[in-house]
Write a structure and sequence with these properties.
8 helices; mainly alpha; Rhomboid-like fold
C-alpha cells in the first residue's frame, strides 16, 4: 500500500478528540452544577472497589487548572494519533487506556488517582516512539514536534511534585512505548528503496560473478546447386 494514500484527512481526526475532551469537561460541569465530587471514583491501587477507576478516572479532574492542563495536550496528541496512525488509533486509545489504568492500579501508592494525564502520557509516548521506530520521515518529524512541545513532561514520571500521580504518568509512558513496538509493522512503514535493474546488472549473477554473454549461433542457409553441362545445352 502506498504510504501517501494513508495521509488523508478525515473528520474523525478532529471529531473523536473533540468528543473526548468535551466529555471530560461535561463530567466536570456536572460536578460543579450539582455539587458532586467524583474523586473517590478514581483508581485506588490494589483494592477491588478502586479497580473501577481504571475505566472512570480519565474523566475525573480535581479542579479547573487540572482539567485545562490535560485538555490541550489531550486534543493535540489524540488528533495526531488519529491522523498519522489511523489504522491502530482506536486500539491504542482503548487498549492503551485500559492497560495504563491497570498498571497504575498495580504499582501506585495508596491514594485516589484521577485525571486524563495517564492517557496524555500514553499518547505522547506512542506518537514519539512510533515515529522513531518506523523511521518514516513524516512520522519522525511528528516525533520531533511532539518532544519539542511536550518534552518537559518527561520529568513528571518521577515523584518531583506533591499531589501529582507520577505513577499514572509512568504507566502511560511504559504502555505507549510497548504499543509502539507491538504495532511497529502496522500502518505506515518506511519504504525500502528499490533499485531499477539495467542491462549491465544482467551481466552478473546474484553473487556478483561475471556471466559472459552468449552469442547466438549463426544460421547457415542451404544453397542448392544445379550443374548444367554444355553438352546438354547443345542438344
Amino acid at each position: 500500500m502506498n504510504n501517501d494514500n494513508q495521509f488523508k484527512f478525515s473528520q474523525s481526526v478532529f471529531v473523536l478528540p473533540f468528543l473526548f475532551v468535551f466529555l471530560i469537561w461535561f463530567v466536570y460541569w456536572l460536578e460543579i452544577q450539582f455539587g458532586w465530587n467524583f474523586n473517590k471514583l478514581g483508581i485506588y491501587p490494589r483494592n477491588l472497589s478502586g479497580f473501577k477507576g481504571v475505566f472512570i478516572s480519565p474523566f475525573i479532574h480535581s479542579n479547573i487548572s487540572h482539567l485545562f492542563n490535560n485538555s490541550i495536550p489531550l486534543f493535540v496528541l489524540c488528533a495526531s494519533l488519529f491522523y498519522f496512525y489511523k489504522d491502530v488509533a482506536l486500539r491504542v486509545l482503548l487498549i492503551g487506556g485500559f492497560l495504563t489504568g491497570l498498571l497504575t492500579w498495580v504499582i501506585a501508592r495508596e491514594s485516589f488517582h484521577i485525571g486524563a494525564s495517564g492517557i496524555v502520557y500514553l499518547l505522547f509516548s506512542f506518537v514519539f516512539f512510533s515515529g522513531i521506530i518506523k523511521k518514516h520521515y513524516r512520522l519522525v518529524a511528528m516525533s520531533l514536534i511532539t518532544i519539542f512541545l511536550y518534552g518537559s513532561m518527561i520529568w513528571y514520571v518521577l515523584p518531583i511534585k506533591e499531589g501529582v500521580s507520577w505513577e499514572g504518568h509512568l504507566s502511560g509512558l511504559i504502555i505507549g512505548f510497548s504499543l509502539a513496538i507491538i504495532y511497529r509493522n502496522r500502518g505506515i512503514v518506511k519504504e525500502k528503496f528499490q533499485f531499477s535493474k539495467t542491462a549491465f546488472d544482467t551481466m552478473f549473477d546474484e553473487n556478483g560473478n561475471y556471466i559472459p554473454p552468449v552469442e547466438p549461433e549463426e544460421t547457415k542457409s542451404e544453397l542448392n546447386y544445379k550443374y548444367v553441362y554444355l553438352a546438354d545445352e547443345e542438344e
